[in-house]
Amino acid sequence: MAHRCYIIPPHLLKAISESSHNSDAIRQSARAALISHETHSAKRRLHLEAVVQSRRASRAPPPTSPFVPSSVLRSLSQSEHVDEEARARAAKDLEHALYLEARAKEGIEAAQPDADASKSTTKRSVYDAEHTSSEGKLPGKLVRAEGNKAVTDKNVNEAYDNVGTVLQFYKDKFKWISIDNKNSDVISSVHFGDMYENAFWDTEERQMVFGDGGEFLGNFVGSIDVIGHELTHAVTEHTSPLNYQGQPGALNEHVSDVFGIMIKQKVQNETAASADWLIGEDCILPGVKGVALRSMKAPGTAYNDPRFGKDPQVDNMKNYTPTFEDNGGVHIFSGIPNKAFYLASKAFGGYSWEKAGQIWWKTMRSGQVSENSTFLQFADVTVDVAKKEFGADAAKTVRKAWDDVGEYSCQSSPQTAGKPDTPKHNDIRLRYQLSLPTLRSLSTIDKAPDRRKVLEIACHAAEFRSFPIKQDQKNLFREINDHTGIPYPISGLVTESWQKVFLLIQIDLSRGGWPNKISANGRKELMRESGRIYVVLDRVLRCLADIFGEREDGRGVTVTLDVLRSVKAKVWEGTELELLQVEGIGAAKMKRLTDAGIKTIKQLAGLEFYHIERLLSRNPPFGHQMLTQLSGFPLLHMQLSVISEYMPAQRDGKQDKGTCPLQQSWITRVLLGYSNDALPTWCKRNPWATLVIEGDDGRLLWFWRGSVKRMETTKIMFVRLDAKKGENVKATFACEGIVGTLIRTTLAV
């Protein structure tokens, strides 16, 4: 039995089957269609899981011969002597086994982009199903093949032409060929069933299937957005397969709606501002109180008919309620990302495929959308892609679109909900493309926090809620918390997303290695998640540093930059682990050095090459090579001195109101530089440095950030510091992302 994705959602079929305004025959037909839908949706989920499994297997370099032969798996999948669950598992394993056998037989890499290099064109063919309801008889009788002239059957011609339009759109706008980028043929069958009121992409048979429609719904072959929607399900399988359940399933539906609507707008030459944003507009037959199957502009308003019920789609996360129906509401909650795409497209202006469409397409091609992606995680990737492709302003536009559908603004905790945000803080949030709940959470941090508090509050960012602790990860994070000696263990149960991030960062920075409490596949998945976590954490910590700066909390800025530096270097600041930043030094070599009293990179750089070779038991030219590398490690220096008291301007004999009567202002000379023989270069980059000057009560007196290039001939600044006479002013100077460069000095005013 094939796996189907239907254009008519189950909630609509259910409403028709239960409405007393419909005849018994109509209700019975809808009920039968609903049962069929539920049965095959379950099978679709299994198919998508198999696709994901095949994708993962395709990353392995050598062809693999499965131990259990496919004939055994095929027998199990069809046997009446095992239960349904066992048959389903065998069917999934069979698909994977056949995939592996085919790869081994062909002797090629499954990941090779042009596996079928001899195929240069995509061929369309349209069949007449002759009203059969049996999938075993599909595709039916061939009526029109690629290159043939039009026939007398209007449905055949419309299916042929509209499939061609969809394929041409993908080729022209996204450089994508057919459904798999390999020129696969596209088969369509029309006249399926008796007055069958639906259309679907059969993911197993790899073909489109169209019913003729009935009293309420029809004209499926004539609806270009319907065909675009269904063929996009096939494209999704070959870009970022999304499981057909819950939020990933809603994203799966959303992506199909996005490309379906863009194709419709292209055919009708409509801009984002002038389009109606209706999906399935041509499927609603006269007499129905409605305009379409879905509205991306205003989800929940497409129809309201006593025979259909009211459109149940929602357009905001505040209305998101988990459900078991419709595979977790995949057709209902897709309205939330649908509206976000509409808002982004309208904000960009022009045609929807020019910017918003490119962002969504490159998101699906980015490799960052996992099969279990949540709305929040998907939104983050779209923002990152927007910034990369079109710049910071585009990223803000996309972020605002997601904000407006509540994906971020409606996820705040009770402790932070309703907390006012200053305009300056909101500007900071937009600068780093973070959510409103994250801003509110960061704004709750107390003055002059310690390192643990900074890391903990950063890990509470709403963006990390898309990284839950999965079932197979529980033992790993309990082991990290209880038995690895991390500096900040958690008391109580480890169950929340922020705890996962908090522990993962600590074990990485401690360089202890992950405990062996997770499978190989689970470890690979966690490593992929880890990469995205570090990207988000960098933005969150920078945002937090700016918030402290706006508050004039110097101690908060200093500690946050200390944590950020450690996170970027992946070793804790102030520990002997800083030696691990040097290429060629691992745990064993670090121990040899520390046993010899060499605990910092500066100390190591001060050794002669032959001492390095002796301590690490290496032969020449190892010592010379290491010293060459270490010559680029920034050796910073700093001097502060008070020049004179600052005398504010007098206005009509009165003191300038900007001067605080409890403090004096001092003109201070700040000298910044490095003692390297050449411009410092670390990890093939010229690093940036930060200077923080704070009073003895932790208030921020001065902040500077710049590239070490600006210190080539020593940078001299004259700054005004507001401090009491006799106060001890503290200055901290360090390179971003490099542990061990930190220097501190105290100036008595």
UniProtKB/TrEMBL annotation:
Domain SEC63: from-to ranges: 423-749
Keyword set includes Zinc: yes
A GO term, aspect molecular function: metal ion binding
One Gene Ontology term from the biological process aspect of the record: proteolysis
Keywords noted in UniProt: Hydrolase, Metal-binding, Metalloprotease, Protease, Zinc
Stretch forming the signal peptide: none
Residue ranges, annotated region (Disordered): 109-135
Stored InterPro entries: Metalloprotease_M4, Peptidase_M4, Peptidase_M4/M1_CTD_sf, Peptidase_M4_C_domain, Peptidase_M4_domain, Sec63-dom
UniProt feature, compositional bias: Basic and acidic residues: 125-134
Keyword flag Mitochondrion: no
One Pfam family from the record: Sec63
Membership in a protein family: Belongs to the peptidase M4 family.
Alphabetical list of PANTHER family matching this protein: NEUTRAL METALLOPROTEINASE, PTHR43579
Protein name, as recorded: Matellopeptidase-like protein
Organism for this UniProt entry: Hypocrea jecorina (strain QM6a)
